[in-house]
Amino acid sequence: MKKIFCSLLFLLSGLLLTAQTIENPTFKARNGSIRNITRIERTPECTKVYIHAIFRPHWWIMEDGDSYLEDAATGKRYAQTGAEGIQLKEKIVMPDSGTTDFVLLFEPLPADVQTIHLIAPNSTESNTYDISLVPSPKDKQPLKSVEGNWFADDTQGRWAYGIYDSLVIANNRLYDLKECRKKGKRLILAAQSRADGSSVTLQLTPRKDGSCLIALEGDEAQRYVRTRPAAPAVEADEGYDEDFFRRDSVWLQGYVDGYDPRLEFDSGILYLENEISRQDYPTVVPIRPDGSFQCKFVLQHPVCQDLVIHNNWIPFYAEPGDTITLYLDWEDLLARSRARDSFFPLSHTAYMGKKAGLSYLAMTLSQHFNYPYDKLMKAQKTLTPAQFQEQLQPTIAQWQQQADSLCRLYAPSKKAVQLTRNQIAMQTGYTYLEYQTSRSYYARQDSTNQALKVQPDASYYSFLKEIPLNEPSLLANRYISVFINRFEYMDPLNAAYKVYARLPNTETFKALPDDEKRILLQTAISEAKDSIAGSLCGTASPLLWQVARVRDLRYTLPEMQNRRDAERLIGRLEQTVTHPYLQATAREMLDELCPETEQASYRLPEGKATDIFRRIIAPHAGKVLFVDFWATTCGPCRGGIQATADLRKQYRNHPEFQFVYITSENESPEKSYTDYVEKHLKGEACYRLSDTEYKYMRQLFQFNGIPHYVVVEKDGSISTEEVGTHNLADFLKRRFGDKQ
């Protein structure tokens, strides 16, 4: 009997040893936060993974049943065997709470497995890496007690220090952590600057209340807390002075907390552009394996800009000469993605630098003063201009109230007040102009729509007189590009093109030489536009209209037949464009677009981007290449490709010419890419790059928007001739004849 009892005890102890429950297991990284692991149960029969799902109410999620667990040490996979609380391959509609719970079942894990990955091969936001199945050690490394961000415990609440696994942020600099040692209750950190190799020492004394006393280089210790103020203070300033326009470099650097290379992205991008000259100069932001990043770019004036990381747009404020440090919490970005809301607050984002307060303001402004686009589209088709004005007024009044509150909060900074007021002006102006943009198109599509038959009169544009169009700081606004685009192409300006019907029929015009005709036409149209704009704006040639006139040179200067005519056009422009900086920009555009010495092509600069491009075009060496940067998600790209179908047939297998199509994994999802190429580009030279490689192509050839076209000469140089799908047939005929 005793022998049987001992055998039972032995068997029971064996079962207890093989059964295990891990509550809220820790993990190292994940690419989504819809599926949250709350518990893992290990038994000899199976492994249960308890999921707490969070998603938008009334949206659906689905478990395909093809997830698996992977032993992090050996790579061995353990298949999914079922589920509890859900039906596999069926949509789960989220309840009002936006949460639901279920269990995923997998094959049993061997007892020696300590770390696993949960992988969903057909999902882009369901993988969790390095899930620990063992208890966390009680004696944590000393650094853990002080890791994270530390903010000044005063009314300013500035972000002063960031302490991470191998990185220290202090003095608006990035330092590599070289040593961490304990000295009594203090931690001594030794770090080395990435900028110049200099060393610093920090002394940190954690306190029971969660705060920390921190001293840098032997200075007196100050108290810091982990909590970022809800509205960090901004430094006082006297506003923008006469040096608003100035050219200088900017350093942007920072850290993505929670980043891991397995998240399948290793870069961000800045979609930079010079609004005055219409020049794009996107800049790649490489992300190191430790989550830190650093890049340099040039500004012509202060801006509210966005860093784009993994489809997240993170605002910041910069002035020429600045260094900006940015902290991002990966879990914040996942929560925004999960919410499917581009304005979802990033509550842990922190900024460091002289203008940090204005970066916090830029983030606040990006989350407010937005008119719902679906509501605007509906108004375009259903409301008359007067009705839309009436509908918009309460929204504008609400924006004004919000702006007043922000201006009181940021009152010490005149720049902050200007930026806030400008935000209202830009958003109001854009909304009014955008309403009218597509109504003529919709009217042609639906001739019975009575609302679309009503066109606005001049009084509709009275809002332009309320916008400070002579204020240079409008160019710092985050939405200046969309506003000025609608402003320079607003419907009333179309009346200026009546010149084409009137002027060529006059005897005086007919008697002029061709070059004089071109200049006279451009001048007459410009003068007509000046008159219309002056009437609508209530003042002649306000600064923003002068900007629009300079921007127009991107299209009018290439129409001039020679440098002399282009210079004459610039001379006449300067009668309207009187701002010295804009005049200088116009002269720079003259040298760019109509150089005194023509250059047929140029060589690409040496570097990573050029190496990527050379690898792509290497199989086509010795040919002239028409390179099309495109995406399946881009309608104009697809239109251009399909419009050149006959040309591709005509020049297929040409010994001296080749079409090349380049897209990215991010902008052309695999299935849509495969289907589109099979239908429209079969047999062509098609390349689908990684997201980072495509970003480097944007930087190399300086384009933000697509489609973008490049002509590569036989020797590998890049043609300076502007060739697109609209003039490609003429280009090919001129270079190679009709059919070879």
UniProtKB/TrEMBL annotation:
<dbReference type="InterPro" id="IPR036249">
    <property type="entry name" value="Thioredoxin-like_sf"/>
</dbReference>
<keyword id="KW-0732">Signal</keyword>
<protein>
    <submittedName>
        <fullName>Redoxin family protein</fullName>
    </submittedName>
</protein>
<dbReference type="InterPro" id="IPR012336">
    <property type="entry name" value="Thioredoxin-like_fold"/>
</dbReference>
<keyword id="KW-1015">Disulfide bond</keyword>
<dbReference type="InterPro" id="IPR017937">
    <property type="entry name" value="Thioredoxin_CS"/>
</dbReference>
<feature type="signal peptide">
    <location>
        <begin position="1"/>
        <end position="18"/>
    </location>
</feature>
<dbReference type="InterPro" id="IPR050553">
    <property type="entry name" value="Thioredoxin_ResA/DsbE_sf"/>
</dbReference>
<keyword id="KW-0201">Cytochrome c-type biogenesis</keyword>
<dbReference type="Pfam" id="PF13905">
    <property type="entry name" value="Thioredoxin_8"/>
</dbReference>
<dbReference type="InterPro" id="IPR013766">
    <property type="entry name" value="Thioredoxin_domain"/>
</dbReference>
<dbReference type="GO" id="GO:0030313">
    <property type="term" value="C:cell envelope"/>
</dbReference>
<feature type="domain" description="Thioredoxin">
    <location>
        <begin position="598"/>
        <end position="734"/>
    </location>
</feature>
<keyword id="KW-0676">Redox-active center</keyword>
<dbReference type="GO" id="GO:0017004">
    <property type="term" value="P:cytochrome complex assembly"/>
</dbReference>
